[in-house]
Amino acid sequence: MARGNLTFIAEMPRAREGENPPSLIFDAVVNLSPSSSARLTKYPISDKSKIANHRVRGNPTLQLVCWMGRAPLHNFTNNLVGGDNEELRPSQALKVLEGWDKKGTELYIASEHKNFSGYVITKLNWSTERTDAIKF
């Protein structure tokens, strides 16, 4: 689903490879940072010594920094914040993200280099930074 530099977010299971589901398509994605972590456990064995060869993986995380403005660079027919009223695009994007956050909706994120599925929003921050756009 990743096409060029386009990054979008869609609800699962509606988003499948090769489909074009209704999506939140940002004007700009300035940071996309996936990460994962693991820790080694220390289990004692019969002679009371500890072994540390068990690895427990934490949940992967994905941090996005995106912008949604009033004047889209390009209108996409499947964008959840359409071009009907461009003045409302930033607030519409915020409503979509807040709705997904409140419901714990599983999301599919497609980016230029990799696609991510089964993610949920765990932290949502936004600011306007003295512009007509919202930074998420």
How is the topology of this model organized?
Elements: E1 8-11, E2 23-25, E3 28-35, E4 38-44, E5 50-57, E6 61-68, H1 89-103, E7 107-110, E8 115-119, E9 134-135
Antiparallel strand pairs: 1-2, 1-7, 3-6, 4-5, 6-9, 7-8
Number of DSSP helices? 1
N- to C-terminal separation? 22 Å
Largest sheet: spatial strand order: 2-1-7-8
The geometry reads as elongated
> Mean of the pLDDT scores?
82
Assign the structural class, choosing from mainly alpha, mainly beta, alpha/beta, alpha+beta, or little secondary structure: mainly beta
Based on CA atoms alone, the radius of gyration comes out at 19 Å
Spans with pLDDT under 50 lasting ≥5 residues?
A: none
**What is the N-to-C succession of helices and strands?**
EEEEEEHEEE
Largest sheet: 4 strands, antiparallel
Q: Give the percentage of residues in beta strands.
A: 35-45%
How many beta strands in the DSSP annotation? 9
What fraction, in percent, of the residue positions are helical?
A: 10-25%
Tell me about this structure:
The chain has 136 residues and is mainly beta. Helices cover 11% and strands 36% of the residues. The strands form three sheets. Strands 2-1-7-8 form a four-stranded antiparallel sheet, with helices on one face. The chain has a three-stranded antiparallel sheet with strand order 3-6-9. A hairpin with a 5-residue loop joins strand 4 and strand 5. It is elongated.
